[in-house]
Amino acid sequence: MIEAVRLQKHYGKTKAVDDLSFTVRPGRVTGFLGPNGAGKSTTMRMILGLDTPTGGDVRIDGQHYAQLKQPLRKIGALLDAKWVHPNRSARSHLKWLAVSNKIPVSRVQEVLEVVGLTEVAHKNAGGFSLGMSQRLGIAGALLGDPEVLLFDEPVNGLDPEGILWIRQFMHRLAGEGRTVFVSSHLLSEMSQTAQDLIVIGRGQLIAQTTTEQFIADATQDTVRVRSPHAAKLREILAAHATVTDDSASGSLVVHGIPAQQIGELAAEHQIVLHELSPQRGSLEEAFMQLTKESVEYQAH
Amino acid sequence: MTLLAVERIKLFSTRSPYWCSALALVLGVGLTAIIAGTTDNGQVSLGVTQFGSSQLALSVVLVMAALAVTTEYRFSTIRATFLAVPNRTSALVAKTVVVAFIAALLGEIIAFGSVGIAKVLSPASDLAINTSGEWRHVAGVGLLYGIGAIIAIAVGILVRQTAGAVAILLVWNMLLEGLIGIIPKVGVKIQAWLPFMNANHFLQLGGDNMAEQAGAGVDFKLSQWGSLGYFAGIAVALLVVALIVAKRRDA
């Protein structure tokens, strides 16, 4: 379990992370979501003891990262696939990592096979494509067979094949009962991988919830209504909800009350409806809506 | 021991230490070879054999030691290091020990290699190492390299980028300390307390060709071994500062 309590990181006047508290539950995949510059990477660096928080605290199973005796056996992280020496072979890179945490060197071969890099293991990491580097980074994270895994934007810049591979890999890790904490700025990506979501914007917590709940909350209460008596219907609904005209299709878009209630209201006033459809709003829209609010809130 | 093994793997799994070692060897021994080859047979002295090792090759070794840490920052492998070993002080001390040991070993190879090549090229010269002063002059080069490597690593940790660290080390070692002697009156007094000047003082052979040796004309207040201790003290002090900074700084 990763637990952050009132975590802060200030760079001069900029508050990269501002009073952020959250819990990453064990045995689940938790998505860490926020637009670029929201403070996701900074938070991850603080979890891993690379950056010192300005205030607050973050612990892994009750311990600071620096207190972990052999950290790679507890938590494996991939923050940046390019954190390898370009003139060092993939195998050598993994070997020194293994030795540093007293992990048997035979494990290097195992993780190379897991990520499918066995054939290029002797080659210098500098010549690797982004996808291969990403695999090497994941091999490094898996080296100590840790129960907790941390990935920062693992699909960023990958081609579709690479994205699919990473996604399947996350599922596999979760299936093995590991705790996975993965950041992304793409909600659609997360909605397919993560069970829990921690959403931040401008360094502040916007939501911590299950993915299911988040999607339900974000997409409810938008209903498209079409009626030959639009003006009258508009009047009636306006008393209960926010109604906007969709001039393109000549229909009404109703926020704030469920489709069921609109139907009942229409029946009560004997208004004919040609369409009554709840909108499954796009996740990205909902996400942008949420994070935009946080930005506006910040600007005041 | 684990951390020493880690740093050894890291150092020898890239090419730059091999190239730097080879370059230091070629320059150090090569300069002696040229000097011995162009001097009349029988006229080469032991003091002359160490110009290459104590002046020229030293610079290459300083660069190699600085590179061992600046490349870690350059490629962010320092972060991978700190993730694997959260105790930054242990990790960096292990690196310092490994690099300093290799530098010292290289120093001995170059120093004795230089004497050897001089013997081959100028067989009539008296190049026997008999007195304790002569032993210090040759075998001391290794100590100089080891301590110099500590300074280079400290500078590397503080500056974090190759170009800056290399510039500082080369200007400091090759130019600055020598040029300070130009300052009238006080210059020589200051030089008596400069680290690389003291390092050269430690190596001084004395005797007939005293004036040709580095650090000549400076009125050192310390004994020769005292000078080495002073050089080592400054190196350790710099390293301690660097370790404190590295511990407090965001990686």
Order of helices and strands of chain B: HHHHHHHHHHH
Helix content of chain A: 25-40%
Average pLDDT of chain B:
92
Measure the end-to-end span of chain B.
24 Å
Which strand-content bin applies to the residues of chain A? 25-35%
Percent strand of chain B equals under 5%
- Strand arrangement within the widest β-sheet of chain A reads 5-6-7-3-8-9
- Helix tally of chain A equals 11
Arithmetic mean of pLDDT of chain A: 88
The secondary-structure element order of chain A is EEEHEHEHHHEHEHEEHEHEEHEH
Task: State the largest interface.
Answer: A-B, 33 and 26 residues
What's the gist of this structure?
The complex is a heterodimer of chains A (300) and B (251). With 300 residues, chain A is of the alpha/beta class.
Describe what you observe in this structure:
The complex is a heterodimer of chains A (300) and B (251). The mean pLDDT of chain A is 88. Chain A is built from 11 helices and 13 strands. Chain A is elongated. Chain A has a 6-stranded mixed β-sheet, with helices on both faces. Chain A has a 4-stranded antiparallel β-sheet with strand order 11-12-10-13, covered by helices on one side. In chain A, α4 crosses α5. Chain A has 300 residues and is an alpha/beta fold. Chain B has helices spanning 2-12, 16-38, 46-49, 51-74, 77-84, 88-121, 132-159, 162-179, 186-191, 195-203, 224-248. The interface between A and B is medium-sized, with 33 and 26 residues.
